[in-house]
Amino acid sequence: MRKKEIAAEIEKIFNRVYADAKCSLDFENPLQLLIATQLAAQCTDARVNLVTPALFERYKTAKDFAEADVTELESYIHSTGFFRNKARNIIGCCIKLLTDFGGVVPDNMDELLTLPGVGRKTANIILGDVYNKPAVVIDTHAKRIAYRIGLTDNTDPAKIEFDLMKILNPSTSAGFCHCLVYHGRAVCKAISPQCEICPIAHLCKKRIKKSK
Question: Of 107, 139, 205, 206, which residue is the catalytic one?
Answer without folding.
Answer: 139
